[in-house]
Design brief:
Number of strands: 9
Number of domains: 1
Oligomer: single chain
Mean pLDDT: 94
CATH superfamily: Creatinase/methionine aminopeptidase superfamily
Shape: globular
Strand content: 15-25%
Distance between the termini: 20 Å
Structural class: alpha+beta
CATH topology: Creatine Amidinohydrolase
Order of helices and strands: HHEEEEEHHEEEE
Amino acid sequence: MPHDHRIASLLAAEKKAEALFDAIEAAGFIAPGRTERAVEQDIYALAEQSFGVTKHWHKRIVRSGINTLRTAGDNPPILEIAEDDTVFLDLGPVFDEWEADVGRTYALGTDPRKHRLCADLEPIFEDIKRHFDDHPDITGAELYAHAQRAADAAGWLFGGAIAGHIVGEFPHAHIPGEKDHYRISPANPTRMRDPDATGQTKHWIIEVHLVDRDQTFGGFYERLLVPTA
């Protein structure tokens, strides 16, 4: 499939996922006193009823409080959202067989540190993207190291075991090849701009997972990495 069609399809899926986020916010699902599971169930129903989403390429993740320190592969005990929590959503809806992967974080209370962490997420995403743009031969391990440096420079810890991964036609997980080479992590020594095992261009998601230095709260943000050139 031509490169320009694939990226256009992925961007269209992401745009729909962002509209899903806007609908979640408008519905007021994220509120103190609600459990993470209740929010997840509401999102599932809204995605199907209003957006026709019947498949999610990864589990819908709702994390609040101390659970915002945990990575995607973890399954911590379900919490009730508290008045001053940070809450993040990590969604993987499939639109017309194309995968979206988007994440946003909300600071519910008035704690200035939590609001600052939320405000820092997107600028750090943009910093990581610029570093990718500026280094044509960059490897997954090198971009992960830059993500750690960017978090540290802003006063945070980088909380993710990875800083992103490829995305594509559903299910991208079945693409052959070494799975570590499809992640932005210390275990990926390969050039991110190298094609995948089928010869197609890799399209990347950047994940920014920030954690405060005392490791009491965190936040998460992700979307497609669309190279400037």
